[in-house]
């Protein structure tokens, strides 16, 4: 008889897929959702094939019972929880508090992500926080695991992150992959994909990770898709989840069949088979109201079908997005990818504006530490900093940046590192290290059809100047709120800004 292994043990075993089952804690404390959670976790605890229960954190930005509280219940029932850990509605101190609580409860597995934009709540919409992005949170957890920063005994968190290969534009895909490098460099120990049904995209991520020697286990997301949910995802009403028109049409056809539920589960089992064939290290199974029997079926049928995974990939998961970008050239024999990246000088758009080129020049001449005017500017800034000029200078900087970039007066400006785009005013989630997972066709998750994702604009601008690799190069620390309402130029030249962040 197989013995039950923890999530991290299962992921480390190349001979077998690890299996996590995603359960949504739901709204309320003693409602159907929590009862279902407990019943299913109890059954999963007895099954050696299920290694962990994934516990979501306010999906869709709507409030639900704390993921942490349900994770404790899962732990008590004897199954490892994998807790979604987001900063959408908590600042860095609240996140740290949550980490202490998780540590005390001996809950180590965390899935660190940006989180969906907060939605409707008591007396109106909730205030979005996003004090840290996913890369910052991973780094903070790594520092706690090293016993650094808190100067307390080292923690043992096993933290992973999310990536979406299911983006349609080159800029979005590259923004996802560049951020993936930063997530891994800052401590992500495993990576879970967003939701999608395109085998070539799953294969792309596998090959991207392998060819860039990003040695982390990959977990593919399997969501049992019903027609109503597929339609919501197709209309971009569930952030980051991609269901194409061709797949909706297929589900519409199936909806007239009496065995439509079986077909939905069979599709999930087939995706399991494909992910196993593509050498993913694990799968994360989810879906509304899934029963233990459903999950068992997906695992067993998926194992049985895995010998024919290539056929299944070609027949059932060929759902490209219209004009969608792929990082690698297509392999005609399989419909998947070769290991040859496409020539990106001939794809996508590049759009460096005159303003960006001019700002680059100004930075290289006056601001960069090696700039010819840097010593003079530093001396002037040191003088101003100690004189009555400090206040008018600060006001002048704020006024200028308000006119050009809707400045939010954070005092810790990083625009010159980010293609002269301000993440504080122009990204609703204030991301400093790369795009969240919610963009669709280049548009921002929060303002679809109205505002481009800033990382799309940034990529296109950098690409126009041959500097797009900069988006993965430098870790951008979070804002230091001590500097709020002060001059970021004075902070920069007086060595007080994020470049001097002592972590
Ligand atoms: S601008 Fe981009 S990173 Fe920011 S919230 Fe919108 S989609 Fe996400």
Automatic annotation (TrEMBL):
What does the record list as GO biological process? methionine biosynthetic process; tetrahydrofolate interconversion
* GO cellular component labels: cytosol
Pathway it belongs to? Answer: One-carbon metabolism; tetrahydrofolate interconversion
Gene3D superfamilies, sorted: 3.20.20.220
Keyword Oxidoreductase in record: yes
State the InterPro entries in the record: DUF5981, FAD-linked_oxidoreductase-like, Mehydrof_redctse-like
MF terms in GO: FAD binding; methylenetetrahydrofolate reductase (NADH) activity
Name the needed cofactors.
FAD
Residue ranges of the Methylene-tetrahydrofolate reductase C-terminal-like domain? 392-481
Keyword list, A-Z: FAD, Flavoprotein, Oxidoreductase
Q: Which reaction does it catalyse?
A: (6S)-5-methyl-5,6,7,8-tetrahydrofolate + NAD(+) = (6R)-5,10-methylene-5,6,7,8-tetrahydrofolate + NADH + H(+)
Domain of life (superkingdom)? Bacteria
Query: What is the similarity comment for this entry?
Result: Belongs to the methylenetetrahydrofolate reductase family.
Q: What is this protein called?
A: Methylenetetrahydrofolate reductase
Starting at the broadest rank, the lineage of the source organism is:
Bacteria, Bacillati, Bacillota, Negativicutes, Selenomonadales
């Amino acid at each position: 008889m197989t013995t039950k292994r923890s999530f991290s043990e299962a992921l480390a075993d190349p001979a077998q897929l690890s299996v996590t089952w995603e359960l949504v804690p739901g709204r309320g404390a003693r409602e159907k959702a929590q009862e279902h959670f407990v019943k299913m976790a109890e059954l999963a605890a007895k099954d050696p094939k299920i290694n962990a229960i994934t516990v979501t954190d306010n999906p869709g930005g709507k409030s639900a019972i704390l993921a942490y509280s349900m994770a404790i219940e899962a732990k008590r029932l004897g199954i490892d929880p994998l807790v979604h850990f987001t900063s959408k509605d908590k600042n860095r101190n609240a996140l740290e508090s949550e980490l202490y609580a998780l540590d005390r409860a001996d809950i180590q597995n965390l899935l660190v992500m940006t989180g969906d934009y907060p939605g409707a709540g008591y007396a109106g919409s909730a205030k979005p926080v996003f004090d840290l992005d996913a890369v910052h949170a991973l780094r903070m957890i790594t520092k706690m695991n090293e016993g650094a920063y808190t100067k307390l005994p080292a923690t043992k968190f096993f933290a992973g992150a999310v990536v979406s290969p299911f983006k349609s534009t080159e800029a979005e895909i590259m923004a996802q992959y560049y951020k993936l490098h930063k997530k891994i460099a800052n401590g992500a120990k495993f990576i879970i994909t967003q939701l999608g049904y395109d085998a070539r995209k799953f294969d792309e991520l596998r090959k991207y990770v392998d060819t860039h020697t990003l040695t982390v286990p990959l977990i593919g997301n399997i969501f049992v898709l019903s027609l109503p949910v597929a339609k919501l995802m197709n209309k971009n009403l569930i952030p980051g989840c991609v269901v194409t028109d061709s797949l909706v049409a297929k589900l519409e056809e199936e909806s007239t069949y009496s065995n439509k539920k079986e077909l939905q589960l069979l599709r999930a089992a087939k995706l399991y088979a494909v992910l196993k064939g593509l050498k993913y290290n694990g799968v994360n199974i989810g879906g509304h109201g899934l029963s233990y029997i459903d999950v068992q079926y997906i695992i067993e049928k998926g194992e049985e079908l895995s010998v024919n995974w290539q056929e299944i990939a070609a027949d059932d998961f060929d759902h490209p997005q219209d004009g969608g970008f792929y990082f690698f050239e297509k392999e005609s024999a399989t419909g998947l990818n070769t290991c040859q990246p496409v020539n990106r000088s001939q794809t996508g758009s590049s759009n460096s504006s005159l303003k960006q080129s001019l700002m680059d020049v100004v930075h290289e001449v006056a601001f960069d530490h090696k700039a010819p005017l840097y010593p003079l500017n530093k001396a002037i800034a040191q003088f101003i900093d100690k004189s009555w000029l400090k206040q008018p200078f600060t006001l002048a900087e704020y006024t200028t940046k308000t006119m050009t970039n809707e400045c939010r007066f954070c005092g810790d400006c990083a625009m010159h590192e980010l293609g002269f785009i301000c993440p504080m005013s122009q990204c609703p989630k204030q991301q400093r290290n790369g795009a969240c997972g919610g963009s669709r066709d280049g548009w921002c998750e929060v303002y679809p059809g109205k505002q481009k994702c800033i990382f799309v604009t940034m990529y296109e601008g950098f690409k126009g100047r041959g500097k797009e690799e900069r988006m993965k190069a430098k870790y951008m620390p979070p804002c230091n709120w001590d500097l709020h309402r002060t001059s970021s130029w004075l902070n920069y030249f007086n060595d007080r800004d994020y470049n001097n962040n002592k972590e």
